[in-house]
Amino acid sequence: MPGRSTWPRSGRPGRCKALTGSRAARRTTITTAGAAAIAARIAARASAKRTAAAAAAMPGELVRVGGQDVHVLARRQGEGPTVVFENAMMCPSPEWAWVAGRLGPDVPYVAYDRPGTGWSSPAGPQSAKDLSARLLNLLTTLGMHTPYILVGHSVGGLLIRDFARRYPDSSAGLVFVDSSHPDQLARSAQQRNDLPWVRACSPRICVP
Length: 208
Description:
6 strands, disordered C terminus, Rossmann fold, 208 residues, 41% helix
């Protein structure tokens, strides 16, 4: 009829548009949340597969020491002395496999990954004092016979110096394999700039 509104009684056009927009927004939100959940599940499955593959490829064993997993290659039989291998910077313990394989069958040995290398759990900054204490704790946990013959490659040479200085009664001898020198940071400005963290591994610099 003339003069009468032709809009439906259910409401005004602005309100109808607002309701339509809110429904679309909800659908978009639900769709986005669903996609995120699917992506999270896919990522979790991929991570689990990578973890399983790494565990299958890992030689040796994981030993729980001080609340952390330490990756170890060890032969426990034998009366000692025990040969203890200390790796180079960021090198995993299998670097010693060819050496350990040539030891006699009655010679016990331990090669391990320091925190944050190889298959061992990560950790924060470590001083030589911290690393020496961790190593002693590991050897005690494994039940390895003393005394220890310590073999250090590169920066591992600095670490075995520190271990022997702190635990002389447990140390029978030191073997240096292309070892870092205690004074190399003092002699080389480039290494002081490029490798500042190595200062924490130097027996002459770390806090007793």
